[in-house]
Amino acid sequence: MTVLAHGVTASDSNDELTRDALAVLQPGFEGTTAPAWLLRQVGEGLTAVGLFGRNIASSEQLAALTAQLRAEREDVLVAIDEEGGDVTRLEVRDGSSFPGNLALGAVDDTGLTRDVARELGRRLAACGVNLNWAPSADVNSNPDNPVIGVRSFGADTHLAARHTAAYVEGLQAAGVAACTKHFPGHGDTNVDSHHALPRIDVDLDTLVARELVPFKAAVAAGTKAVMSAHILVPALDPTRPATLSPQILTGLLRKELGYEGLIVTDGMEMNAIAGTYGIERGSVLAIAAGADAICVGGGLADEATVLRLRDALVAAVKEGALPAERLADAAARVRALASWARQARAAAAPGAPQEGSAPGIGLAAARRAVAVTGTAAPVTAPPYVATLAPVANIAVGDETPWGVAAELAALVPGTASGVYSEGAGAAAVLAAAGSRTVVAVVRDEHRHPWMAQALDTLIAARPDTVVVEMGVPRATPRGALHIATHGASRVCGTAAAEIIAGA
Length: 503
Prior knowledge:
6-stranded mixed β-sheet, 17 helices, globular, 6-stranded parallel β-sheet, 503 residues, alpha/beta, 14 strands
């Protein structure tokens, strides 16, 4: 056995290196209980686990799952992508009890945003989750953005900044670490980084005045984590996407903005990275660039993925491609956050897990966010709800129901409904509706010409049509009544249904 400096043996050094490599991974898994391989890896040094909708059946089940993980390692970080609004994992099958960021931005009451985030954090903490990959601090400056949209607080930089800070404060007051994303800003893109590598071609002055302001606010508010974006920003780094860029992660975020917390990558299996660098090389480059944690598991959720990334990091250190000190520093930051989360969990002492909606604040916020144009008598006879549905982006997913049909049926029994995708014309809607009042539900109409055309035809044939826009309300309001909910969560649907029915 080789003895190194200070009495450390080569085998000890290798064990420490392996544990550090495991510590920086945030993998996912299949199932609603922790598989044996995951518990084994937690015992061997894995410090964080990521949860997705497939892992959650109920609050009680989730609490049991996190307890199972903590029996193996008390300070394990249990992370989740729970933005509220359109992106929900806690309520993936029913829709969120909370409105999303755009709705909160539309109300523009930072106290409300703070309270909503605190209540969401309380629910997460009650289930044993202590790291939330939220909020989105992206300024949605490009209305054609296919992946951010209602996940942003809005297109106004300073509005996004003050609500990002309020969200961070509220979430962390509940003992759950916030992870502000997607640095340095994913708002000015028209490409989804799940599919390809987006590029933001603006000058440095624009980035500083627009994209970076909400992240500065998050840092000032004490965000415990920041998530990098898989985007190319030539003004900052002409060759590497932000996740792999030393100039962006170390130079800008660490040195210029003074951020000392955890830097987490966005999902490494997203095609912007996996399709260009591959997840192994991408993970090594990300840690070398200044990232501290590798998020993977939305699509790749098995032990083989964990071992591939662990071994790639270990090999990179041994070959000199990744400094051992950088990996050790990254692992130390992960463990420091795990320690904070354990202490915050003890201090917060959350109550028992609860099913169903939060105590009123989510629906109250959704009601305040609704914007109504036009006037119409309440719909008291059973209407026909036609949902014009675009293809869901991967971040939102297609598992979560949205719209107003179920919510309106609860208020007006006998309500009928149908879902129409691209290629279905207004004639099919009119035939199905018959003499009923048509309630047309759209999502980002301004981004879908087929949707706008169908809506125009419907309104021309039936001027009493009620329109509900559940995406970003950029198209001109029309119809007898136009309701903009600023999001498609379940409570947004309820708020719209109440207006339609006069409830």
